[in-house]
Amino acid sequence: MPGRRTRGAARAGKYAALLGYLLFLAFPLLWLLSTALKSPRELGSLHPAWIPRDPTLANVRQAFEEQPLAHAALNSLLVALGTAVVAVLIATPMAYVMARHRTRLARAATGWVVVSQAFPFVLVIIPLFLVLKNLRLIDSLFGLTLVYVVWALPFALWMLVGHVRAVPVELEEAAAVDGAGRLRTLVSVTAPLLGPGIAATALFAFVTAWNEFFFALVLLKSPGRQTLPVVLTHFIGAEGVADLGPLAAAAFLATLPSVALFGLLQRRITGGLLAGAVKS
Fold first, then answer.
1. What is the 3-state secondary structure (H, E, C) of the chain?
2. How many alpha carbons lie under 13 Å from residue 206 in its C-beta half-sphere?
3. Taking every annotated instance into account, which residue ranges of this chain make up the domain ABC transmembrane type-1 (predicted)?
């Protein structure tokens, strides 16, 4: 009996800790939603309430009237989708080579992948700006997409290498016995088993490009080409005073695509990688 009570208390403690962690993660989103639905009078109250007393969509309408949010969201969507697709297409075969051919060059490449993630944005922005200027890709969504692909590729490689190594070599050897070459083995045998890894990598690349601000601020000059994170800063005045209601409404809407994409890919990410692929 005491042991059963102890296990029950431990399980309740785990669920309580998990609930607290989920509330901690959801706090920014709930705060944005609450602020977006409040009237200007409530926003200026000295005693703000969590739940709006008189919910209104005026902040949403004002946000779309003041700034070109729809056009900026389209720009961000094009750049983020392009980054996710290109990063996955490049990283998958590279990760396969690095995982299956464990040479000194492959180990050095893996180490460089890890080290490159430590480079700060400020360190690379000047040479990157000069390179894109020579290529005439400044103020271009295509140029920005290339930058995001290069920036997301190291982490995408690091993620996919582990997933490729989890695929049993016996499956590829069986395909080779049947006459399949390396490319066909990668496309027909290995790639389908990398579904969770590819989904997680695509989600990472998409969210990184969707939320990125610094490169977009420096490389995009025309108002018609600015992405959503840059346009969100327009709700802050020259003296640093934020138009809090429309800003919260626009920021809340900006988080929805990432949440929706995660919901679509959730099963692929959390699903078993090789359930039933081979007999033990």
1. CHHHHHHHHHHHHHHHHHHHHHHHHHHHHHHHHHHHCCCHHHHCCCCCCCCCCCCCCHHHHHHHHHCCHHHHHHHHHHHHHHHHHHHHHHHHHHHHHHHHCCCHHHHHHHHHHHHHCCCCHHHHHHHHHHHHHHCCCCCCHHHHHHHHHHHHHHHHHHHHHHHHHHCCHHHHHHHHHCCCCHHHHHHHHHHHHCHHHHHHHHHHHHHHHHHCCHHHHHHCCCHHHCCHHHHHHHHECCCCCECHHHHHHHHHHHHHHHHHHHHHHHHHHHCCCCCCCCCC
2. 19
3. 73-265
Tokens of 248: 């919260």
pLDDT at position 81 is 94
Phi-psi region of 179 (alpha: psi -120 to 50; beta: other; left: phi over 0): left
Interatomic CA distance for residues 274 and 280, integer angstroms? 12
What's the pLDDT score for residue 143? 92
What is the pLDDT, as a whole number, of residue 3? 57
* Residues 183-203 pLDDT 10s: 777 777 777 788 788 888 888
Question: What is the overall mean pLDDT for the chain?
Answer: 82
Does residue 141 contact residue 71 with C-beta atoms inside 8 Å? Answer: no
Q: Residue 148 — very low, low, confident or very high, per pLDDT cuts 50/70/90?
A: very high
Express each pLDDT in 3-26 by its tens digit: 566 776 778 788 888 888 888 878
